[in-house]
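the four lines:
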Amino acid sequence: MVAMEFPEVRKASTREGAAERRADAQRNRQRILTAARRLYATEGLGISMAAVSREAGVGKATLFRHFATVPDLVSAAFAEQMDAYVLATQEALAEDDAWWGFIRYVITVCEMQAGDRGFADVLTTALPGSADFEARRVQAYEGFLEVVERARSTGHLRDDFTSQDLILVLFANAGVVAATASEAPESWRRLIGHLIRGFAAEGAPTPSLPTPPDDEALYRAMTRDAPVAIRRR
Amino acid sequence: MVAMEFPEVRKASTREGAAERRADAQRNRQRILTAARRLYATEGLGISMAAVSREAGVGKATLFRHFATVPDLVSAAFAEQMDAYVLATQEALAEDDAWWGFIRYVITVCEMQAGDRGFADVLTTALPGSADFEARRVQAYEGFLEVVERARSTGHLRDDFTSQDLILVLFANAGVVAATASEAPESWRRLIGHLIRGFAAEGAPTPSLPTPPDDEALYRAMTRDAPVAIRRR
DNA sequence: CCGGAAACGGATCGCCCGTTCCATTTGTGA
DNA sequence: TCACAAATGGAACGGGCGATCCGTTTCCGG
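prediction for all of em together
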């Protein structure tokens, strides 16, 4: 299997015409993005536009003038992380040990999900109407295909592992992260540890299994971080 | 390890005082439960009380008179499934092959999650104020501890598998189910297949890995079933 | 320093939510 | 059959949401 050339990662941060705007507009745009990133990171993509504008100290109309739709705001807020996401596949391919590169990649991506609840949602949600963003997702996915292929050729990754399995890992990890983020935030490492063992062919080296999360913390996670808000009376 | 006696499963369906109500009240109660179950099954617990009352063809006030809070309605709607959930551990313990019993149990529970999105949420959400319900969850959990212990003693289940891992499986499976239910509803079997391989000790028999879900269906799952509603403009 | 364009943000619209109120209807025991 | 308690459901309240309108403020080039 020949190592392939990789298309350059397009920097989404370079936006033409941004400099032409008035100074206060640029400042507000930045304030909005900062606020959105902070809220999304801790609360996920369920945050309302109204809440973002409040957090940013900006009128609703201003927010909508800068970002006409939710996907517009989301894709702008997560542009850098999307870059890092694409970059992760390239780092995995640069790794000498392809099997280890695969493992590192999976852990890195899940780490990104765990570190930012919004990004976890982003990775498991297509953003309608944001072509740029979706293109980078595809780019990352294609990179991952290479990572898988390389790892499989070492014989350490089971040969029935398919690219679809990565998406399932993202969905599964998003579920664990969403449930445990506030009470047992390292839980996902344990899940991924089990999964990597499942992905390993007979005799392949695997990292040691992380210690399980605390029992009571997990129960609190069930109680508090309901996937759906259930209020007390 | 001695096999333990098991407390009987309490039937939640037997409710004292139900017969004392007026006939139309009983009818409406049933209508509400039917409607709630139908909506919860397809949409998850995110359904509003207003939507349930509409689906049931009943005034909002009537709904609230029967079930004052969301947890009240939820726990009533899922009483039978909670019985089945508890029962599953006992069936697993009745299995001759403890390792096989463990596998069957995990698959059965995940199947229940996949078959009813509301139940998937229920299993990963404590219902505040519904002591009866929580008691049955604990009962099931204690049964599961036995299932694990028995399976571990066969040497087929890795000895570093802990009871917390089951909860992680539920969170992870809930994530996959929530994302794929409408577009690739069998996806979760693939995930659980990988996980079971991860749980198996060296040389333990494992069921064959289910075929991966269709690529395009998975992408559609990302597009449509956003964990958070993201509208087009 | 000043005028007009650019940007702002409070007010507002329409919608759905959970919750409560109360005039009306319905079941049922005497 | 009838009267009254039980049960109903439409209407109404307060609140948050996405989205838009429009009078006011702010920037910036000349």
